[in-house]
Each structure stands twice: as structure tokens, then as C-alpha cells.
Design a protein that fits this description.
Radius of gyration: 21 Å
Structural class: alpha/beta
Order of helices and strands: HHEHEHEHEHEEHEHEHHHHEHHEEH
Shape: globular
CATH architecture: Alpha-Beta Complex
CATH superfamily: Amidase signature (AS) domain
Bound molecules: glutamine
Number of domains: 1
Strand content: 5-15%
CATH topology: Amidase signature (AS) enzymes
CATH class: Alpha Beta
Distance between the termini: 10 Å
Number of strands: 11
């Protein structure tokens, strides 16, 4: 059952080939036998899952259940889950049990999906390798000595290892697309404002966006149908009808104009990655798409602008964790100041502290205009590059990341080398555009991702191009050794 896609599971459940309780038990068993090797899941909610599965079976028996009713999924541990620990990968929130569900969690609950548990992640979603998690790193199922990417590495590894057919994730600078690429799964970061951020623990609020991961584009479409909604509890959520993303999957790519940014094929791109991505583009061209070389001239500025804006917003967002309200509090504080200082020094890991320091510096009097103000201007330029490009093309494609999964420790001592992992993904967040990664090849036994960027609210077009590609290739069907 674990090799079936969500689309196939939906059919199996609705035609009573198996029950949700059977399916849920099957995935729970896989999590208990396989997860110790990967550390992808950090909380298992077996009892609630089986209860939800039994309720789903009743709805299915009644005959009018929504698509995802009875389908098991995992949530990234950044989404608040009522009564279930939500740690955000941090010691700071190791004891945090939210009294409410995030809107995304609520949407899945309403649809009758079954939550198996919560996935590991980089602390507060800061990272590209999952090495910053308080709960230890996630291992890449394709190569146990290599990182799964981050920050949604737990979700990506869990889907790759078939511990769940789909999972939620978030992307601030690449955290859905980069781990999806490194673990050989599909993942889409929707347009900013498409998915509610309410109850999703904030990292950099103007960039954070939730989205789904699954093995195929079709499954991502099914999950996004449920995940996307208008929510008046998130003031940046856009009031706009959610289309049925599965309805247009079969649109042909014939005549589709695909922009290939020359800046995304520059120095630093692994030759094996480039070869796989170019082959994927040739496949789409053979299906009738037109490849057009384009330029996004300010691409090189995206990483520097992001590493001012994201830490600035993070420093403001994370100021709420001070030991006084919820989360970690140091032992025997001498006075208030001591409690703030030690709770934060002991509760936050090194990368989070680095970001808070950078962010506080960039926002301080005298530096605000020089750094934060400047970065916001650069952000405008980056966004205008895309607006111009989309005057002439329908989608933009290129590699998701510069190389396949690297070994643990390879970039751990060099934050800047780690930051460059997101060189092709960050601009999309700065512009608020949707982007997806799908598997398009293998290099040295590790998966490669093709990135597909769309215009605002053009998720349906991204998903259909991805689906058309997956109809004629089988990279998305490959499984790591010992998994299928
Ligand atoms: N790797 C980037 C960072 O460390 C992006 C993380 C993310 O998208 N959450 O900030």
C-alpha cells in the first residue's frame, strides 16, 4: 500500500479495497520499523490517528467523503496541532503543546485526512540540511551519510521513505523545494498569501509560505486543494477562489513558453545536475513547449538581500520566546534580565542565535537604512525581473539547487556555503511567486530536482506542466534502496 500515490489511495479507499484503519496501521508500522534509521518523524500520534481513521471509514461508508478522507499524512512540526507538541525543531518549544490547530491542520482535519505525526525540521526552519534540529539530523533515505536538505527535510525524507504518502512543509527561502529535490520527491511552494500562515510558527513573515510534498505533481494538486484557503485570521491571505488543481493536470504543454534564466546555469552548478535539468527541458520541448532563454539580471543579489530581510523579520518574530510566556525557561533565574538572557541562550541553537544577532543589528538605529532599507529596494528589483520575464514566458524552469545532497558536516562550519544552497530558490520567495521542484534525474545515486516557477496564482499551470513531465518519465517512481 505504501507504494500507491495519494490519487490511488483515494480510489482504493472510496472503492473499499482497503480501509483507512488498515492503511493507517500500515504506515504506523512502517514508521516504527524504518524511522529510527532516518529520524524524519519526531512525534507519532498513533492513537489519535487510528481514531481519526475509524471516523474516516464511517464517512467513507456513508458515501459522500471528501477526496482526502482517510488518507494518512504528516505535518511539519512548525504547524500548531491542538494537544500535540509543536516544537519547531527547537529546545525552546520542546515542551510546547498548542491549544489550537493551525488553519492548514484544521483544513486537513475537516477533509478527514489522518495525521500520523509531526516531522523533524531545522530549528525554526532556519537551515538547508536539517542539521540544526534540536532532535538531531534527518538522514537522506537515498544516502544515509548525506543530508535530506532543509528545513522541511523531515517531510521530504518521510515521503521518500514511504512513511507517509504526503506531508505538509513550509518554504521561506527554499525549504520545500530544496529538500524535495534532495530526496527525490515533488513539492510546491504556492504564491505568498495562497495558504494561511495562521498557526504556522513564524520565521520571516513576508516570505513564509506553507505547501505540500508528495511523490507526484498530481498528489501535490490534491493536497493543495485542501491546504489552500482564504483565512481572515491571516491578514496576508488573499481572498481568491481556490481552483481545483487536479482539473487542469491534463493540459498539454504544447505552445507553452518556458523561460530558461541564464543566471541559473552559471558557475557552481554541478555538471551532473545541469545535464539532468537540460534533459528534462528537452523532454518538455519534445512535447511541444518552446524554450526561451531569459535573463533575471538581479539574481545574484537574492541571497544577500534575503540574509538581511529574513534575519530582520526573524529577530522580531522570535522576540516572543523569552522564557516568560511559553516555551523553555532557564533554571533558577536571578532576576528578569537573567531569565531572558539564559532562557534564550540555552533554548536557541547556534544558527538561530546567529540570525537573531544579524537581524537585530540590521534593524538597529543607524543601520536600518543601510541594510534593511537597501535590502527592501533590492527585493523590488528582483521582483521586477520576474514581472518583466513573465511578460514573455508562461513558466520559468531551471535547477532547484546547485548540486545533489551533500554529506553531513560538509557545510556545517561555513554558514555562507550553506546559504548558497538556496541560490536558485530564494528569489521566488522575495518576489512572492509560486515554485515547485520535481525529480528529474539521478547523479551519483542521488536525486536531482527540476524547478518550475510560475506567475502569481499560476499554481495550476506549474502543476500541469509537472504532471505532463511525470506522465512521460519515471524519476518520481524511483525508491531508495530497501524502501519499495
Ligand atoms: N535555507 C534557508 C534558510 O536557512 C531557507 C529556509 C526556509 O525556507 N525555511 O533560511
Amino acid at each position: 500500500m505504501h507504494n500507491l500515490t495519494i490519487a490511488e489511495l483515494v480510489k482504493g479507499l472510496q472503492s473499499k479495497k482497503f480501509t483507512s484503519v488498515e492503511l493507517t496501521q500500515h504506515f504506523l508500522d512502517r514508521i516504527s520499523s524504518l524511522n529510527p534509521a532516518y529520524n524524519a518523524v519526531i512525534t507519532v500520534t498513533a492513537e489519535q490517528a487510528l481514531k481519526a481513521a475509524a471516523a474516516a471509514d464511517q464517512r467513507l461508508a456513508a458515501g459522500d467523503a471528501p477526496d482526502l478522507c482517510g488518507v494518512p499524512i504528516l505535518h511539519k512540526d512548525i504547524f500548531c496541532t491542538d494537544g500535540v507538541r509543536t516544537s519547531c525543531g527547537s529546545k525552546m518549544l520542546d515542551n510546547f503543546i498548542p491549544p489550537y490547530n493551525a488553519t492548514v491542520v484544521e483544513n486537513f482535519e475537516q477533509a478527514g485526512a489522518v495525521v500520523l505525526g509531526k516531522t523533524n525540521m531545522d530549528e525554526f526552519a532556519m537551515g538547508s540540511s536539517n542539521e540544526t534540529s534540536f532532535y538531531g539530523p534527518v538522514k537522506n533515505p537515498w544516502a544515509i551519510d548525506s543530508v535530506p536538505g532543509g528545513s522541511s527535510g523531515g517531510s521530504a525524507a518521510a515521503v521518500a521513505a514511504r512513511l507517509a504518502p504526503g506531508a505538509t512543509a513550509t518554504d521561506t527561502g527554499g525549504s520545500i523545494r530544496q529538500p524535495a529535490a534532495l530526496c527525490g520527491v515533488s513539492g510546491i511552494k504556492p504564491t505568498y498569501g495562497r495558504v494561511s500562515r495562521w498557526g504556522m510558527i513564524a520565521f520571516a513573515s513576508s516570505l513564509d509560505q506553507g505547501g505540500p510534498m508528495a511523490r507526484t505533481a498530481e498528489d501535490c494538486a490534491l493536497l493543495l486543494n485542501c491546504m489552500a484557503s482564504y483565512d481572515d485570521k491571516d491578514s496576508t491571505c488573499i481572498e481568491r477562489e481556490v481552483p481545483d488543481y487536479t482539473a487542469t493536470l491534463n493540459s498539454s504543454v504544447k505552445g507553452l513558453r518556458i523561460g530558461i534564466p541564464k543566471e541559473y546555469f552559471s558557475e557552481g552548478l554541478h555538471p551532473g545536475t545541469e545535464k539532468a535539468v537540460r534533459a528534462a527541458l528537452a523532454n518538455l520541448e519534445a512535447q511541444g513547449a518552446e524554450l526561451v532563454e531569459i535573463s533575471l539580471p538581479n539574481s545574484a543579489l537574492s541571497v544577500p538581500a534575503y540574509y538581511v530581510i529574513a534575519p530582520a523579520e526573524a529577530s522580531a518574530n522570535l522576540s516572543r520566546f523569552d522564557g516568560s510566556r511559553y516555551g523553555y525557561r532557564c533554571e533558577d533565574p536571578k532576576d528578569l534580565q537573567d531569565m531572558y538572557c539564559r532562557s534564550r541562550a540555552e533554548g536557541f541553537g547556534e544558527e538561530v542565535q546567529r540570525r537573531i544577532l544579524i537581524g537585530t543589528y540590521c534593524l538597529s538605529a543607524g543601520y536600518y537604512d543601510a541594510y534593511y532599507g537597501k535590502a527592501q529596494q533590492v527585493r523590488q528589483l528582483i521582483q521586477q525581473d520576474f514581472v518583466k520575464a513573465f511578460d514573455n514566458v508562461d513558466l520559468i524552469m531551471g535547477p532547484t539547487c546547485p548540486s545533489p545532497a551533500f554529506k553531513f558536516g560538509a557545510k556545517g562550519d561555513d554558514p555562507v556555503a550553506m546559504y548558497l544552497e538556496d541560490i536558485y530558490t530564494i528569489a521566488t520567495n522575495l518576489a512572492g511567486l509560486p515554485g515547485m521542484s520535481i525529480p528529474c534525474g539521478m547523479v551519483e545515486g542521488k536525486p536531482v530536482g527540476l524547478q518550475i516557477i510560475g506567475n502569481y496564482f499560476d499554481e495550476a499551470r506549474i502543476l500541469s506542466a509537472a504532471h505532463q513531465y511525470q506522465q512521460s518519465t519515471d524519476w518520481h517512481d524511483l525508491a531508495p534502496e530497501g524502501i519499495a
